[in-house]
Amino acid sequence: MCGAGESVVAGAGPVGRPGERATVRLRDGEAAEEPPRYAPEWLRLREPADAAARAQGLLHPLRIRLANLPGHSGAFAVHDLGCGTGSMGRWLAPRLDGPQHWVLHDRDPYLLHFAAVGSPRSAADGSTVTVETRRGDVARLTPDALAGASLVTASALLDVLTRDEVGTLVDACAGAGCPALLTLSVAGRVDLTPADPLDAEIAEAFNAHQRRGGLLGPDAVTVACEAFAARGAAVRVHPSPWRLGPEESALTEQWLRGWVGAAVEQRPELRDRAERYLRDRLDACAAGELRVVVHHSDLLALPRPTGGAS
After folding, report:
1. Could you tell me if 55 and 236 are in contact, meaning their C-beta atoms sit under 8 angstroms apart?
2. What pLDDT tens digit does each residue of the chain (310 aa) get?
3. 114, 142 in Cβ contact below 8 A?
4. Closest Cα to residue 51, out of 84, 12, 92, 14?
5. Which of 30, 81, 137, 264 has its CB surrounded by the most CB atoms within 10 Å?
6. Are 97 and 115 contacting, i.e. CB atoms less than 8 angstroms apart?
7. Residue 107 CB: number of other CB atoms within 10 A?
8. DSSP state for residue 137 in the 8-state scheme
9. Terminal CA-to-CA distance of the chain, rounded, Å?
């Protein structure tokens, strides 16, 4: 399902060595040919809002930790889990000093190709950035998936995992002894201006949809914080909200359709009222009269220092 021949996309990174084992696997019962979960058009549309939202305040402690990694030599190995089209690398690599080697993980080879082709080639200080790709579902990391990692990153990932899958991810990070920067997890709160009486009901139904099938949704950051802390890591959480106004109307429109659609899928009895609500909200968006704050959280987990690192 995810053998050595599929673990790297040809032309987008180094080819897997003979006998090399895949480091991620698909969820039980999922086919490798299952349609991709995220359209690249949506990921491109949200990339500027993601970049503006990510918590800059977490970069300083991350830089300090990377500069003091015990035994570090050569390029930093950065594993980007669920990389999509590679927006995290485009945002973070140019903000870190030193040579970097990014390992991009995703289940969709189409997205992996875009991520590899669009990856930055230089760090903040001009050092070289290289990239390779690994295909598979990051929901289930094998124990050696992050061997040698200097940093683990992910964006909009935690909330689509279960409690067990977050535990597996945290175990892998703890085993590697490396920091983890996990950004843009949904916080379960949305502020729309002007307000509407149906806002809260739609938000509640959407949050329930996010938790379907044991997924963590808005509870993900709390669960991840507890899991990292239980393994001795220091955890920092900063808000990272989208702030959408008239300049982001295309993103706001698509987000509204998905937000209301998920709420109706969760609670079909909302359909008639939700259709009118969505129509009114889209009209306000087109007129430049709607502003939306979609709350997210960024998490930085720093493992207990060893060897005198600070």
Report:
1. no
2. 233 233 322 222 222 333 223 333 333 444 444 444 568 889 999 999 999 999 999 999 999 999 988 777 789 999 999 999 999 999 999 999 999 999 999 999 999 999 999 999 999 999 999 999 999 877 777 768 898 999 999 999 999 999 999 999 999 999 889 999 999 999 999 999 999 999 999 999 999 999 999 999 999 999 999 999 999 999 999 999 999 999 999 999 999 999 999 999 999 999 999 999 999 999 999 999 999 999 999 999 999 865 444 4
3. no
4. 92
5. 81
6. no
7. 22
8. -
9. 42
Residue type at position 246: P
User: CA dist 187 to 44, 54, 107, Å?
Assistant: 22, 14, 25
What CA–CA distance (Å, rounded) separates 115 from 87? Answer: 8
Taking a C-beta distance cutoff of 8 angstroms, is the pair 138, 164 a contact? no
8 Å CB contact between 2 and 136: yes
> What's the residue count for the chain?
310
Tell me how far apart the alpha carbons of residues 19 and 40 are, in angstroms, rounded to a whole number.
Answer: 32
Q: What angle do CA 152, 154, 157 make, to 5 degrees?
A: 135
CB burial readout 235-273, b (16+ within 10 A) else e: bbbeebbbebeeebbebbbebbeebbebbbebbeebeee
